[in-house]
């Protein structure tokens, strides 16, 4: 019996990389190591096949295989959300049912590009919910930088009123702090069910987002232990301690957050930390130059010194 | 006492070119000739300084000068709408009041780029209406191809309910026939005031738009007499005759409708027809090649033959 | 031994719909009928799984099944190009090799979104050609309205100089008549190999494009016989006759060319003409209103009358 | 005799705010105070009427008035660059000549939207240089997030080879560290004249950019003294000290860098620091909520503590 995400899901749902070996094949050994690493870091959930990951570069078979492999390795210890965004609702429903049967906790759906009015957006999610059926919990991904689609607060609240299964918001509008404040204060009221809010955008504003009522983070930083500790400290009331720790990592957060190249950096760090056998990104994709490697080394060293100074 | 646009404005509001002499200066003699030409064609209104015109290439002084000159020449015979879209509301209000004082019938406002939710759109037009004051009638321009901003039918209806001064819609969403049908049938009801709907998009669908309830056209075709006759015939019940005439011009409508180069073609035709002294487009802007000129000649000749055959 | 597209491919490559039955399943009976219909119309080639078709809504298995089915039915009588554009080069190569083995004549590749400089574009096509291997002929699709990626003439010419396998351009930049003229005159020279140029954009400018040197059309009009006859008449020197016929169909060309809804219209016409059992478009997708149906009926009747009048 | 920017310009060119009083009028007293403040911070230059400032909300008269006022107050002590980007080349030339006559050091030009190929980009800057005449030094602004126009390294190098007056690059492509490295290493060679490179993007990567060869920064941080000290320390060889100082400010750099709201935050900080009489942003524009104000207070306090700890 697998866990499901719900309106109170909280903590750190790490966005998992998709490990490849140097020749580009799915690397399932590294996948096992990565899952264990994330769990050892204390994450409370995992998200795979995300929109900015390499899901579109996997074949249908590879996606299903990777999802099943991760779900088997996790074995119900934490909930696993699976990204299923795509052009056709039939494919989306098929993948969703397959991963839910295999133990997923819910699916994440970003709107397809071109939904330029809120009326269209609401129509789209009505179609999605109908295609998935009511038993599949949905995390709505609000990520206009990539999708080009903007959600108003009003639309987000309407979606959660209209659809019992829409239980979570992956918040990565940018800038979006006031949006987060409003969704927090205007959901969980008498007429609008609470939404779990997990924040993305590489955690660049995590302390601010927690102060404004986020339930945690859903993002892909290569030092998941920072995300976990910041969320834990904040929750326990040590708001300044949380932010002090965050600020020590901020130069690296900023560095990983670079669109495109950020994925290569993240995989390189996971490789250097012994998690991934190879930092391989599938073509077409970014790669790091010699200058990037030296810069990263320097930033990793500076991070070590800062953490040592923090004690 | 100048005419104002209102919720029943109808007919053909021709989008006027801004004539320049070969050296790029405003050409006020050609402006006079153009105004007379449009009036001779039987237009029921005129729109100047439109979004796809060359308004952004005029200095503030030139815009004011051109608007005053046209308004003087028209001398109240038909209503003149002035495009005032721009980045700042102070400038928009200043220009609007200046042209209304000089006899304009209303202003046309397109949303600024980046208004990606309907909530933002409605907030923007509330700001616009406040800045303009209640005495300035507004034509809302729905032109997503250029602005990147999409209006839902619901937003259009809400705007006209919320603001007495929003009386007209320049409809050029594309494709947009069903949108037009809905705005027509859902405005003019007990709770939603009627909107005048004039269609743009170079009139590519004018017969269909009239059949769906448009009040006329607001566009910039170089043969305004066609627009006038099609609207008149349609209104008098000769629906097939209207469409037969339209179809004869359709190859040219399609040709002028080309984004960018279409402006050069339109000015060239007005030049060949003796209206503009020069077909000059200000830099940076499109220009016609030798092949374009020959193609246009051929299309003009074919049009003449078709009109002769129609009788 | 299957035909391959080459630098002299010409005529009409019809963009094929993907037929679905009312419940959304692939409809292979209608597929057979559609292939026969296209061949009866005299097309010289066929293109399947195109970028604006419903290819992204097919699963990997369905794409492969549909392609094999069409290729079997065509049985080498005309060359078949297969659209293989997508996010990952591994998937693209896999699909390409599979359809080439099954008898395809070449593949069509549109650049992925975000290739905002010509240097990136050239790098992308170098990666594509390497991934496909030299034995797969490539048609480059220049379609900025959908991809957001613009090709200069210089880049197109460089691509064909750099890659022997890039033999065809699907020209649908818009407006693009001068671009077409330049590619025609600047390829097929001593240092730049000739490119076959087939035009898209629903054939809205077909007579002009043929006059400027296009080798034919690659588009999806529901009356393929018009495309075939216009190209044939033009080639035989009857330039005015070609354009007269085209102009009779132009109201319908314009009507089908509407983005989004155009696909539903095209399928509805093919349904009315007895080709498709159902006009089904997969979700999410456009559908026709009652007003659309009546409008289409009217336009089809007007077309019949015009063709009768042409004799 | 005013200073001109040249290929070796370096240091910190602060992007100046445009001060308004609470009623929205230009606030020239605050302008004086702001100019003095910037000079006291040790900036080596100033940039006014920038693309992300409020220049589009000024009337032509206000722009000219503000530019003259700043130039008078600066009185030649540091070079002042004036943003002149806009839709028409006539207006651009007029404003450029006016400010150069008043003592500006050069102008900054961003490409207009829609220049989707490098060929078009090069054509545009050729037109710009011709319109300005050879005596106006130009800083090219590479800012794709706002303009939608991408420059390749090759295009940047070509521009500086083709136009003697293009002497400076405002680098704010994102992410863009490798681009910066390449422009640095591939200009200043035997065939490509050196380009001064100043970086933007709110200085989020300033230490990395200096390490990769940037000559300094051209951005709008509300603590210009940090930018000045970081550049100075880096230049003097204290690379780690520069980065330590930068990292102390990084939470604030990140906070100000938020698109849209960042302008309100920047003006609020300048207001709190006693520079601007009012934090007014012209409509339509962002404003800060109560939560934003509290958050900012907290971040400013944390910054004070960090600076105290640094000693």
UniProtKB/TrEMBL annotation, chains A, B, C, D:
Annotated Gene Ontology cellular components are: cytosol
Please name the GO terms that the record assigns under molecular function.
Answer: 4-hydroxy-tetrahydrodipicolinate synthase activity
Q: Which SMART domains does the record associate with it? A: DHDPS (SM01130)
Provide the alphabetized UniProt keywords: Lyase
| List of residues binding pyruvate | 218
**Kinase among the record's keywords?**
no
Keyword Plastid included in the entry's annotation: no
A Pfam family of the record is DHDPS
Kindly give the CDD domains that the UniProt entry links to this protein: DHDPS-like
Which InterPro entries does the annotation name?
A: Aldolase_TIM, DapA-like
Please give the family membership noted in the entry: Belongs to the DapA family.
Entry protein name: Dihydrodipicolinate synthase family protein
